Amino acid sequence: MLSTFAKQGFIERHDIAEGDRTVAVYTMADSGRAELDRRLREAVVTVNAMHPSSFRVAISLAPLLSRTTMLEALRERERRERRAAWCSRARAPRPGLPRPTTPAGRWWANRSATAHRVL
Which residue intervals make up region (Disordered) (predicted)? Predict the structure, then answer.
């Protein structure tokens, strides 16, 4: 993985002689720092209830981002969470309103009702 990042120019490898062996030391290039910032910010702002681990990892690495960047990312995440909550409420059926019906929907409803009676 480190060699891939080095090939992409995100990190730089430095071989250092230490006694009778050579040790590889990596430093982050400017492009690597920009890519890390971009990926961490994206992990913070992305709302994905099925895969919350990327958000958790990004929060654990929050000290690597500037305070301004992290605050902006958290505000953007809050906006996206509110929008997702609003959309899910807008799609939810409301009590007292007729459910939209289609021939296929009626067929499935009838089939389901029949299956329950047989069991």
Answer: 84-106
